[in-house]
Design goal:
Length: about 70
């Protein structure tokens, strides 16, 4: 199966809910995304690794696809 090209696509990830009370691996994923405080926003190039991390903590973050 050929890989999909995501030319220019980026993901804007906003930390919306604290990870207190959640599993250690979910807390680690939030840290790996570079999120420290609720309300913080980071941007990443769209890709399968980032999508997987976001899927793991989807209940703690908000994701927007942006062009550029």
């Amino acid at each position: 199966m050929p890989k999909k090209r995501t030319a220019g696509k980026r993901l804007r990830i906003t930390y919306t809910k604290s990870s207190i009370g959640y599993a250690k691996d979910q807390k680690g994923t939030v840290v790996a995304l570079g999120l420290k405080r609720v309300g913080e926003v980071v941007e990443f190039a769209d890709g399968p690794v980032v999508r997987g991390m976001v899927a793991k903590v989807s209940h703690l973050v908000k994701v927007e696809e942006i062009e550029g």
